[in-house]
Amino acid sequence: MTIIDLRSDTVTHPTPAMREAMATAQVGDDVYGEDPTINQLQEMAAERLGKEAGLFVPSGTMGNLAAILAYCNRGDEIILGNQTHIFLNEAGGIAALGGIHPYPIPNQPNGTLALDDIREAIRSDDPHHPITRLIALENTHNCCGGAVLTAEYTQAVADLAHANGLVLHLDGARIFNAATALDVDVASLVAPVDSVTFCLSKGLCAPVGSVLCGSKEFIARAHRVRKQLGGGMRQAGILAAAGIVALHEIAPRLAEDHVRARNLAQGLRNIPGVILDSGEPASNMVYLTLGEDLPLNAEDAARRLKGCHVLVDVVSPRRFRLVTHYWIDDQAIHSTIEAFEKVLGNYS
Ligand code: TLP
C-alpha cells in the first residue's frame, strides 16, 4: 500500500531524472572551488534570481544562518517575524553561534510584518541598545499558511530597510512556489532584497541543498562563514546535479501542487469538525483545525489517518498542516479526503 505523505514537501525524494544526473555528475573538490557541477548550479541559481552570485549550502537553515552571520557582529540585532522559521525552527542558531539578538515582531496572518511595527523596532543610535543590522522576511510564509508576499510589499520593506542603513534578507525556502502563485518571474520577486536563500530539497524535489544568492562581495563573506560552520563540502556536485534538474524540470510544474492544495482544501472543507483557515490555500499548504466538539485531538486523528496510510503534520494540539508536492497526485488527494471522512465521520 502506498503511503500518502503530506507532512511536508521536505519528504520528497529525487525523481528518476535526478538520480540519473547524480550518477553521471562531473565532480571536483568544492573547497578548492573545483566542482564544475556546483559551479554550474551556483551560476544558474544566481542568474535565475537576478543576483550576482550564489553559494550552495547543505540546508535552508545553514543558508539563513550564513547570511545573517555574514551581515552581523555579536550583539547586533535582526528584526524578524515571530512566526518565521528563523525565529521558531532554527534552534536559536543566530543567537547560539553569532550572539545575534532577535527582535521578533508580530507576523500578520498574511505573513507580512506591519511597516509601522518594523519602523518602531529599528533602534536609535544609543549605547544602551543593540545595533539594528537587518530585517528578514519569509516567502512563502510557512507558519502563516503558505502565504505569499508580493514584490510590492517586499519593495516597501526594502525601501524602509535601505532608508535606515539596513539590509533585507529573504528566507525564500519556497520562493519558486511564491513566484508561481503570483505568476511572476522569480527574479522580479526577489529584486528588492539584498540576499535570498532558497531550498532545492522541498517542493523542488532534490534530496539535499539550498542556494544563498546575493552580491559577489556578500557571497564571498558568506563563503567564509559556510566554512566556519563546517558546510564546506567536497565532491558535492553529485548533489548539485539534482538541483540543476530541479530548476529545469520541477520549478515549472509547481502550479500543479497549488491546484491540488486547493482541491484538497475544497474536499476537506465539507467534512464536519474540520475548520480550514479562511480563504483558499495560497500555495502548497493546507492548514486545518479540529473543532472543539470533536472528542479527539490532532495526535489521535493523525494516528488514525496513519492507519489509512495518510501522514499529516501535527502543528499544535488541534491543528494540522498538509503539504502537497511532486509525489502527491490527484488520486492521493482523493484518498486523503476519504481518509479524513472515515476518521472524523464516526463523530459527526
Ligand atoms: N521547514 C520544515 C520544518 O523545519 C518546519 C518544513 O517541514 O516545512 N525556511 C523555511 C520557511 C522552512 O520551512 C524550512 C524548513 C527552512 C527554512 C529550513 O530548511 P532546512 O530543513 O533545509 O534546513
Question: What features would you describe in this structure?
Answer:
- The chain is an alpha/beta fold and 348 residues long.
- It folds into 2 domains: 4-9 and 254-345, Aspartate Aminotransferase, domain 1, CATH 3.90.1150.10; 12-251, Aspartate Aminotransferase, domain 2 (3-Layer(aba) Sandwich), CATH 3.40.640.10.
- Helices cover 42% and strands 18% of the residues.
- The protein has a 7-stranded mixed beta sheet with strand order 2-8-7-6-5-3-4, with helices on both faces.
- The protein is globular and about 60 Å long.
- Ligand TLP binds at residues 8, 10, 59-61, 85, 89, 138, 142, 171, 173, 199, 201, 210.
- Ligand TLP binds next to α3.
Compact overview of the structure:
This protein is of the alpha/beta class and 348 residues long. Helices cover 42% and strands 18% of the residues.
